[in-house]
Design a protein that fits this description.
Number of helices: 5
Largest sheet: 5 strands, antiparallel
Structural class: alpha+beta
Radius of gyration: 21 Å
Helix content: 25-40%
Number of domains: 2
Distance between the termini: 25 Å
Order of helices and strands: HHEHHEEEEH
Length: about 180
């Protein structure tokens, strides 16, 4: 059975697949150049070398997320001593209103973007286009959807990077 898929979602998916294929070709060319696959080297070691090279080349899109919600557990081991020494005490909650006020004073705009289901009402996402950082904020309490040690308006996580393409994808997905 053949079905014709078209539209912005399928075009974006196809473009993503082509980009991934190009990155894979570049990765394997570099594997060949560096002679990472050689006789007598264990498969596990070769796999580790290729993984490390992929990370080095940033082949994989690596989203970095700061899990702010974990601070609410008040476990001192969550933030290592180096970070504590440099930045001081970490409060158990980060209130969005306070962060938004500080960013506004510095002229850093945040744009609310749609949150796809099933997170919809429980989380709100705000995006900063210049830095491509997104903030996930508790929007409403859900017994099984949000941590019970956080309140509505607490920052749940800080994610980098969220590209403009992902923001547009979310808008299309939620609208359609």
């Amino acid at each position: 059975m053949t079905s014709e898929l078209s539209g912005p979602d399928e075009d974006a998916r196809a473009a993503g697949l082509v980009a991934a294929q190009e990155k894979a070709v570049a990765l394997f060319a570099e594997v060949e150049t560096r002679e990472l696959v050689t006789p007598g080297v264990a498969e596990r070691e070769v796999s580790d070398r290729i993984r490390d090279l992929a990370n080095e080349m940033s082949v994989r899109r690596r989203t970095r997320t700061l899990q702010v919600h974990r601070l609410a557990y008040r476990d001192r081991t969550l933030v290592n001593n180096v970070l504590r020494a440099r930045y001081g005490r970490f409060t158990p909650r980060l209130r969005f209103e306070k962060l938004h006020r500080l960013l506004t004073r510095r002229g850093v705009p945040l744009h609310e973007i749609p949150e796809p289901s099933p997170n919809g009402p429980y989380f709100r996402t705000f995006w900063q286009p210049d830095s491509q950082v997104a903030l996930s904020v508790i929007g409403t309490y859900g017994e099984y959807s949000t941590p019970e040690n956080l309140r509505v308006g607490d920052v749940y996580s800080v994610q980098a990077s969220m590209a403009a393409e992902e923001v547009e994808w979310r808008k299309v997905r939620v609208a359609g």
